[in-house]
Design goal:
Helix content of chain B: 55-70%
Largest interface: A-B, 13 and 19 residues
Low-confidence stretches of chain A: none
Distance between the termini of chain A: 35 Å
CATH topology of one domain in chain B: Rossmann fold
Low-confidence stretches of chain B: 1-27, 566-571
Strand content of chain B: 5-15%
Strand content of chain A: under 5%
Distance between the termini of chain B: 74 Å
Strand order of the largest sheet of chain B: 2-3-1-4-5-7
CATH architecture of one domain in chain B: 3-Layer(aba) Sandwich
CATH class of one domain in chain B: Alpha Beta
Mean pLDDT of chain B: 83
Oligomer: heterodimer
Radius of gyration of chain B: 27 Å
CATH superfamily of one domain in chain B: P-loop containing nucleotide triphosphate hydrolases
Order of helices and strands of chain A: HH
Shape of chain A: elongated
Largest sheet of chain A: none
């Protein structure tokens, strides 16, 4: 059970990273980063 | 302009600039200097010496095609912002890289503050053309210093340069440097700092008339004759070597032997290191299997991460050996000779002679190759080069080629001294080159008829390679590959593992679990389209993440077969597993596919950026995909007919 949760957490983090770095156009990334920075 | 008005922040380290420098921003009141000069005079070597950066340098013109920025320090500790610019012979720019230099120098580039001081860099052994550029730059009216770089070579060859007279005649300080050894850098920075005290507004520049050019040329000649005395006995080593290396028959034969030797070495020298890396990953996998209890996390680490990333990292030695040769040839000055030798063949195929160096860069990666096409002035010639550059065998194809070759080509020698695997690898490189020439020929003869402009390029003198530059270059290439394996490939392999594992097989299911997973479903869905070219569903699964980057397919195959393998089939090395599952015809078909397939998202992105249009990346993708399918189809059926 613990192994499955850890494995899924790693998969989720990797998926977000792959989408962020490889699938989203740079312009969208820049816009999201700006919104994130403003929020903080 | 005053120092206080220099408030526009610099967009540091654009393009593939040094990441370390990219994070440092110059302060508002920082002095900005630009390195300007003829191609191949050592501007980037000087930039690296000043800023501690590691931008690519090579002994041929046209290596730098866009501006690079970094920070330097004067001996008194003041920070200076330094811009490295593409080489040019004049401000009357013709090619896109020369336009960058002209626009930066004249302050016409949007968002770019013009430099306060200009450093005009000259090859001390070749002042003939640079003095005219110096006079042209002087007319802009900005403070300027002339740097005579490679001064050690000039002294060794016996050149006598009257520095005081040169400085007086040109009306600017003259500093001597040896950029590769960081000699003269402090004196240069001190001179720049002094010039920075007298910043003045630039004067308007207009394109000179023919009469003005003639006057500038005769002024430059007069100054050169007064200040520079050539050696009593000119250097004949370059001439003697060129009489052999540029010979139409002997020179071409030597080039072919060199390339052939290179690919032989890639296979034979790398093997012990590859075995070592493989043993390391096997030990790591065993450690994980013995430490963690069987379960999903253990499978993710062992089958997903270690199998996937390890199957790619094992190729690091081959990539580094290939680059050792390429950088050695670049550093010695042989590469432009190779361009000269290939000009006739390339011209016959409709490619401009200047396309040779961008195409050669594409052996590393198509991205610098496509950007390197900026040195070509004619738009059609440049587009043709951009279209064919992705066909050259980039380093991302090496893992795929090597894996299939080691699985299907026996490791034996032919004629007693040649490795058969090396011969096949050479053949695949040759296939890439020939297809690039063929596509270039078709594009020029069918779509863009017209004559090509003649190829004019200055051949540099031969030099002994700078070992620091060679080792740094090789290490950088290795680092880029390892970084990709640790980032893009690692991320994708975790996703591929997930798709290959979830959902699990239903109770009572027979056959490997991957058959029931998302990856299995996708693979089976695509299989009918790929069946005519001999690909099975596992290859279809590997090709999907492989569309983003070619070498990912190898890692994906490693993961898919590790997850799919039941029993001993998955236990052996990946090459052995493939040998057991694929026919020879399938292997040949996949090799043919990889010669052509446009499996690199970054390349298509750069084509879009360089052409400023979506048309050309779409054209590239469609024509390469069509060629890949047709070549794989033909190869598969011919191999099958021959009994493969």
């Amino acid at each position: 059970m613990v192994q499955a949760i850890l494995a899924y957490a790693i998969v989720a983090a990797a998926s977000v990273w792959v989408i962020w770095r490889n699938l989203l156009p740079k312009s969208v990334r820049v816009r999201i980063s700006a919104i994130w920075r403003r929020g903080r | 302009m005053t120092l206080d008005s220099l408030a526009v922040p610099m967009d540091a380290a654009q393009g593939d600039g040094d990441a370390a420098l990219a994070s440092r921003k110059p302060s508002d009141a920082m002095l900005r200097v630009a390195l300007v000069g003829n191609p191949n005079c050592g501007k980037t070597a000087l930039f690296n010496a000043l800023t501690g950066s590691r931008q690519k340098v090579a002994n041929y013109p046209g290596v730098t095609v866009e501006r690079k920025s970094g920070l330097a320090h004067t001996p008194s500790g003041a920070q200076i912002s330094v811009l490295d610019l593409p080489g040019t012979y004049s401000l009357r720019a013709r090619s896109p890289d020369e336009v960058v230099t002209r626009d930066v120098v004249l302050g016409r580039l949007a968002g770019e503050t013009p430099p306060d001081v200009m450093i005009c860099v000259a090859d001390a052994t070749n002042l003939r053309l640079v003095l005219r550029l110096v006079l042209e730059l002087k007319q802009i009216g900005r403070p300027m210093v002339l740097v005579l770089n490679m001064f050690d070579i000039a002294e060794r060859q016996g050149w006598t340069i009257n520095l005081d007279r040169l400085s007086r005649d040109l009306g600017m300080p003259v500093v001597t440097t040896v950029a590769t050894r960081k000699r003269g850098v402090d004196q240069l920075m001190t001179a720049v700092q002094q010039l920075g005290q007298s910043i003045r507004q630039a004067e308007a520049w207009r394109e000179p008339t023919a009469a003005e050019i003639r006057t500038a040329h005769s002024d430059a000649e007069r100054i050169r004759k007064a200040c520079v005395k050539p050696p009593a006995r000119p250097d004949t080593l370059t001439g003697r070597l060129d009489s052999v290396l540029l010979h139409p028959v002997a020179g071409t034969a030597i080039l072919m032997v060199l390339l052939f030797f290179m690919f032989q070495a890639v296979f034979s020298w790398a093997q012990p290191l590859m075995d070592l890396i493989k043993a390391g990953f096997d030990a790591l996998s065993n450690l994980v299997n013995h430490t963690l209890p069987a379960g999903m996390l253990e499978s993710l680490i062992s089958d997903g991460i270690i199998s996937g990333v390890g199957s790619v990292l094992v190729f690091v030695p081959q990539i580094m050996i290939l680059f050792l040769f390429i950088i050695l040839l670049e550093d010695t000055g042989y590469m432009p000779r190779a361009a000269f030798l290939m000009d006739k063949i390339m011209g016959g195929a409709g490619l401009h002679g200047r396309a040779f160096i961008p195409l050669l860069s594409s052996f590393a990666c198509a991205i610098p190759g496509i950007m390197g096409a900026r040195v070509i002035d004619n738009r059609r010639d440049r587009l043709t080069t951009i279209l064919v550059a992705p066909l050259m065998t980039c380093s991302a194809r090496i893992p795929v080629y090597t894996l299939i070759i080691s699985a299907f080509v026996p490791n034996r020698s032919v004629w007693g001294f040649l490795s058969l695997q090396g011969v096949v690898m050479f053949g695949l490189y040759a296939a890439g080159i020939l297809s690039a020439l063929l596509v270039g020929f078709v594009v020029r003869k069918v779509f863009w008829r017209g004559t090509s402009e003649p190829f004019i390029m200055e051949l540099p003198a031969y030099k002994l390679p700078d070992w620091k530059n060679v080792l740094t270059g090789v290490l950088i290439r290795g680092k880029i590959f390892v970084k990709r394996a640790g980032t893009v490939i690692l991320g994708m392999m975790i996703v591929v593992w997930f798709l290959s594992t979830v959902p699990g097989p239903p109770p009572g299911a027979v056959g490997p679990a991957i058959n029931y997973s998302f990856a299995g479903m996708i693979g089976h869905f695509l299989e009918p389209a790929l069946h005519p070219i001999g690909f099975n569903w596992q290859i279809a699964v590997a090709l999907i993440p492989g569309l983003a980057a070619r070498e990912v397919a190898v890692a994906a195959l490693g993961t898919v077969y590790a997850v799919a393998g039941s029993g001993e089939a998955a236990m052996g090395p990946l090459a052995g597993v493939l040998h057991a599952h694929w026919s020879l015809a399938t292997a040949c078909s996949l090799l043919a596919w990889y010669v052509f397939a446009p499996q690199c998202a970054s390349t298509l992105g750069v084509i879009k950026r360089e052409t400023n249009s979506w048309t050309w990346p779409v054209v590239t993708f469609v024509y390469m995909m069509t060629l890949a399918y047709a070549a794989a189809f033909a190869t598969f059926h011919i191999a099958q007919a021959l009994g493969g």
